[in-house]
């Protein structure tokens, strides 16, 4: 298999803001943070983020635009040197379901960039529908296959079960773990698929798999319908799978899923995120996960903040009864959302 070169974005996967861009973003984020009522989930505040996203530094805007055209071989973009809180990052939270409601400077910067890419959205049954969510280790949840855990997090498509899962996932680092060993892992379908024999790829395209809701969703299992884990173009497909919640419906499909997982293990890239780094993963083409680390629950643990972006807001209208940014986790029975 080969990916036609004209569809591959030649720009690099790492973009570092220079000091003038860092300062301009800090100033823009500070003005957004000052917009009343200073709450990330307020519709008026989100409207201000959308409007002000047009004032981001021009070189950054161009790079974001290219990324939404084509996310490159690694299907990710790492932005570096984003502004952090001038007074220092507060202690890392450690409660389950922690979210960022207040408009801090880093949260404002994250929302500005997310709103420049598309529409920042959330799901009502996950992290109470907050747009900016904390990714922090939680005492007693070490072995949890979700972002509150600290054991190895299996490779997954974010919200793989959902017909309108995020197009992009943004993960911004406020603080890494004490030993600087927790690594975000990203595996692009463009690196995985060439490792698979054609008959295995053909099986992965067939509706012989079920993907259930992940542990982070407060939802009953049992509503999944058979689907392919590879979809779309056979030369440059999309990939949707979560190795913690995908089941194959027959033996041949199970073998193909195992070979896919092996290819993923050989393909992932590791990112040791530093404070001020923001990684965007194209959730249609890349899986992500995380290596293990040891939390201390002393206020200095690893802390990421996460957003989800949709590139086509209209597509989810039936799942947003009040028209805002938060999607129903389950589609109403009389609507069609599958893509
Ligand atoms: O902890 C990480 O680096 C990734 C966690 C994750 O998969 C997520 O928050 O969606
Ligand atoms: Fe994730």
From TrEMBL:
InterPro entries: Clavaminate_syn-like, TauD-like_sf, TauD/TfdA-like. It holds the Pfam family TauD. The keyword Metal-binding applies. The keyword Iron applies. GO terms for molecular function: dioxygenase activity. Gene3D superfamilies: Clavaminate synthase-like. Residues 251-307 form the TauD/TfdA-like domain. It comes from the Bacteria. Keywords: Dioxygenase, Iron, Metal-binding, Oxidoreductase. Belongs to the clavaminate synthase family. This is TauD/TfdA family dioxygenase. It comes from Streptomyces chilikensis.
């Amino acid at each position: 298999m080969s990916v036609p070169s004209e569809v591959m974005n030649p720009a690099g996967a790492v973009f570092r803001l220079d000091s003038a861009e860092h300062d301009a973003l800090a100033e823009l984020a500070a003005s957004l943070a000052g917009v009343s009522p200073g709450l990330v989930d307020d519709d008026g505040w989100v409207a201000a983020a959308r409007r002000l996203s047009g004032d981001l530094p021009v070189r950054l805007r161009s790079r974001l635009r290219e990324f939404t055209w084509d996310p490159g071989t690694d299907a990710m973009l790492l932005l570096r040197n984003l502004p952090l809180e001038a007074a220092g990052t507060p202690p890392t939270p450690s409660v389950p379901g922690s979210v960022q409601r207040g408009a801090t400077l880093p949260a404002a910067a994250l929302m500005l960039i997310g709103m420049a890419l598309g529409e920042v959205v959330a799901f009502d049954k996950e992290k109470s529908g907050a747009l900016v969510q904390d990714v922090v280790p939680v005492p007693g949840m070490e072995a949890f296959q979700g972002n509150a855990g600290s054991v190895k997090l299996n490779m997954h498509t974010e919200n793989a079960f959902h017909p309108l899962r995020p197009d992009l996932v943004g993960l911004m680092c406020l603080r890494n773990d004490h030993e600087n060993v927790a690594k975000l892992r990203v595996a692009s379908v463009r690196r995985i698929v060439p490792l698979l024999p054609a008959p295995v790829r053909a099986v992965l395209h067939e509706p012989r798999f079920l993907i259930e809701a992940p542990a982070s969703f407060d939802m009953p299992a049992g509503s999944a319908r058979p689907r392919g884990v590879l979809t779309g173009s056979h030369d440059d497909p999309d990939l949707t799978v979560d190795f913690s919640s995908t089941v194959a419906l027959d033996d041949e499909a199970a073998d193909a899923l195992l070979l896919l997982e092996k290819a993923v293990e050989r393909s992932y890239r590791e990112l040791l995120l530093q404070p001020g780094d923001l990684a965007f993963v194209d959730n249609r083409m890349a899986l992500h996960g995380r290596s293990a680390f040891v939390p201390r629950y002393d206020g200095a643990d690893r802390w990421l903040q996460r957003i989800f972006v949709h590139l086509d807001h209209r597509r989810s209208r039936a799942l947003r009864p009040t028209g805002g940014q938060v999607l129903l986790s389950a589609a109403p029975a009389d609507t069609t959302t599958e893509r």
